[in-house]
Design goal:
about 425 residues; 2 domains; 11 helices; 2-enoyl-CoA Hydratase, Chain A, domain 1; Rossmann fold; about 25% helix
Length: about 425
């Protein structure tokens, strides 16, 4: 009779925030690759207040709000782990201290080119109390955007007109590793958050294409930051839009806020990234036969786990298991996702192969979403499983008696320095 060892990973961030148990044969060599800050303690109310009271490179929100009539509070969507509801009361207290009335405040979901949020999403992200007091809008990247000019790199900047009609603009989000801008946070709440689709495509696509064509390195990738051309372009767009202040959280592998940076959108991000480099860093394995990569913080963007899992495999390659446990399915992305067998967003490209290091790609998806398959690999090359028992059956076909396994608890925010 086969004996098993158990590894637990986080799951269902917006659906109860529980743990998933993964069993492996006890004879297998299984290592859990936690990020350095996985067990950092969450901030208490006193520590959160201190962050708001001591903004970086900026006045506090209450001072900025004096005499302002219309306020836009931008927040990130369900594909990010930020617990906005825990932070909103501090923002509202600051606004109240400046005498800003409720009727002058609105919330705007900075979804970028992602699909619109529902009321259920708004309630999870903001809390019922916000929905009872304030209007909450989705950003529409195809309509109602105001042209503001161009960045020095030629990106035409058009930003949500409701945002631009306000004389105080506040953003709330998080700083986690990002495959294009190196790290999130800062001005990404503006671009792509509330930018037009033309602006998003120019920043995410044309900018990099021009850089490659001229022989310049765009400096993109997980953990790259200072010399990142896309990030620098975002900074310029953020200044054009006039984002007044940004609030960015760092999180642990339970999605809890373990650090908070408040202040000038550029200055606070720079400070936050200094800590982010440390807390999200993960020791690279020597090379494994099986890489199990869990999508937790960005469960609806499970494709983000594939690069890290591929890097974890040994030079001879091995099996890659993606845990895509998202009841809502994979996020709609109007720029990068397919919308049919032969059609997709402006930057969608059909995947015709996987990395040669990936012998088999197994997607463990209790809530299957086959339409997302071509976001990760050629659909015909994917092995689907709805239960972990099915996953083990597939793995043991090639690794019956022994295997070296690496489990990455949240491959959507971890990175190898």
């Amino acid at each position: 009779m086969v004996e098993f060892k158990t590894v637990r990973v986080p799951q269902l961030a917006w659906y109860g925030n529980t743990e998933l148990e993964l069993q492996f044969p006890s004879a297998w060599d299984v290592v859990t690759l936690n990020m350095k800050g996985h067990a950092r303690s969450p901030l208490n109310s006193k520590e959160l207040k201190e962050a708001f009271a001591n903004p970086i490179g900026n006045k506090r929100i209450g001072e900025l709000a004096r005499g302002k009539k219309e306020v836009a509070i931008l927040f990130d969507d369900m594909s990010r782990p930020t617990r906005i509801a825990e932070l909103v009361p501090y923002v509202l207290d600051e606004l109240a201290s400046a005498g800003v009335p409720d009727e002058g405040i609105r919330f705007i979901a900075a979804v970028g080119a992602h699909g619109a949020l529902t009321r259920i999403d708004f309630a999870k992200k903001l809390g019922e109390a916000v929905l009872e007091r304030f209007p909450v809008y989705n950003h529409n990247p195809y309509e109602n955007c105001t042209p503001l000019g161009e960045t020095s790199r030629g990106t035409p900047v058009s930003i949500n007109s409701e945002v631009m009609s306000c004389d105080l603009k506040i953003g709330i989000g998080c700083i986690v590793p990002h495959p294009i801008t190196g790290f999130g946070g800062g001005g990404k709440i503006i671009l792509p958050g509330v930018a037009s689709v033309d602006t998003i495509v120019a920043n995410h696509g044309a900018l990099m294409q021009r850089a490659f064509a001229s022989g310049e390195r765009p400096g993109t990738g997980l953990g790259t930051f200072e010399e990142n051309l896309v990030r620098q372009d975002v900074v310029e767009a953020t200044r054009l839009a006039g984002l007044d202040i940004k609030i960015d959280a760092l999180v642990n592998t339970k999605g809890e806020t373990t650090a908070l940076f408040v202040g000038d959108p550029v200055a606070e991000q720079i400070e936050g990234v200094k800590l982010a480099r440390e807390v999200y860093a993960t020791a690279r394995p020597a090379g494994v036969d099986i890489a199990v990569v869990n999508a937790y913080s960005k469960a609806s963007e499970a494709n983000l786990t594939v690069p890290l899992g591929t890097q974890a495999l040994g030079e001879e390659g091995g099996d890659l298991v993606v845990i895509a446990n998202a009841p809502e399915g994979q996020v709609t992305h109007y720029v990068y996702r397919s919308f049919g067998k032969e059609v997709g967003g402006r930057l969608w490209r059909r995947r015709t192969s996987m990395s040669p290091k990936v012998k088999r790609l197994i997607i463990f998806a209790p809530y299957m979403d086959r339409t997302a398959a071509d976001w990760m690999a050629p659909p015909e090359s994917i092995i689907w499983a709805k239960t972990w028992v099915e996953v083990l059956e597939v793995l043991r076909e090639a690794h019956s008696d022994s295997a070296k396994v690496a489990v990455i608890p949240d491959a959507t925010i971890q990175y190898f320095p």
